[in-house]
Amino acid sequence: MFTWMMDVAILNAYTLIKTTRPSAVEVLSTRKFKPRIAYILTSNEKQNKRRREVEAKSSHRDT
After folding, report:
1. What's the pTM?
2. I need a surface site. Which of 2, 17, 21, 43 has the fewest CB within 10 A?
3. Rounded to an integer, what distance in angstroms lies between the CA atom of residue 43 and that of residue 59?
4. Where do the segments described as Disordered lie (predicted)?
């Protein structure tokens, strides 16, 4: 159910962008749009995870 809702939300976002800014989506298919959205939504957490790992490694060296 969750994945279906995410898929519908992504398709709605694509349709909204396609409607409001057609020139921005001319070369972007839904197949390319989905991974870009996933990257954008997860990039902040990936950066936080890397920073926590670096901090954990440096704290282990200090002790």
Report:
1. 0.62
2. 2
3. 24
4. 44-63
